[in-house]
Design brief:
Layout lengths: L5 H4 L5 H5 L5 H21 L4 H24 L6 H17 L7 H4 L6
């Protein structure tokens, strides 16, 4: 399924991480894919409220939790710069789908990074 939201369709997810040599592209690609799937799920399920949105973002956050091992295996980690970049992407997604009032900390509340 292709993303239809105009703001997200052409968005370059995790651009800051791709630009930083500390993060291997093949692992950042997996993070980008998590965010693309989040957009696709939001478009398919159309969450009616913040609680429904948070359920979707928590599932995506769990995907990033699992990705931590991939970063470590590649000699990297989800540290401060990556955490901020990922959190910013989650807020941007929420905002693009009409949830500008979402709490960024709640969007990623299940994070282990």
């Amino acid at each position: 399924m292709a993303i239809t939201n105009e703001r997200m369709a052409g968005h370059e997810f995790l651009r800051a991480m791709y630009a930083d040599g500390c993060y291997p592209d093949h692992v950042v690609d997996q993070g980008r894919d998590i965010l693309v799937r989040l957009c696709e799920r939001i478009e398919a399920e159309r969450p009616a409220d913040l609680a429904a949105l948070y359920a979707l973002t928590h599932a995506a956050t769990d995907g990033f939790n699992a990705l931590e091992a991939e970063f470590e295996a590649a000699g990297s980690e989800i540290e401060t710069v990556a955490r901020e970049a990922i959190a910013e992407e989650f807020w941007l997604v929420a905002s693009a789908y009409g949830f500008a009032g979402a709490d960024v900390e709640e969007l990623i509340a299940t994070r282990e990074w």
